[in-house]
Amino acid sequence: MNLEDALLLHFEMKLELRMAMLEGRKLDCAQIADACSCELGRWLQEEGRTNCAQYAAYLQLVENHRQFHLEAARVAELINQGQFDAASEALAVGPSRYSQLSSAVGSGIAELRKRLFQQFSH
Description:
Layout: H1 3-23, H2 29-33, H3 39-45, H4 47-52, H5 56-80, H6 84-90, H7 97-120
């Protein structure tokens, strides 16, 4: 799996949530909440666990990724309920939990990429 692609897909989640707000489209909160439903989640549970479980960065990424999906599902539920102001606030750059978790997932992916590069370059 290409970790950069996984990172892009997680950044696209925000766009998907914003588009759903604009279009008044309902979202599948259960699927969004399932951290194993995305490519990164599957990789973390399979190949990532095999190659990276010894790293603290892996364990932190697994947890941040799980929390990210739960927060994205919470925002999706706000959208489904028509609470667009609250959803927009929840997606705000900076202090929002969504933004913090998104950044933590991105940092975790970068750290794992570095560790894997070191591991397989020796």
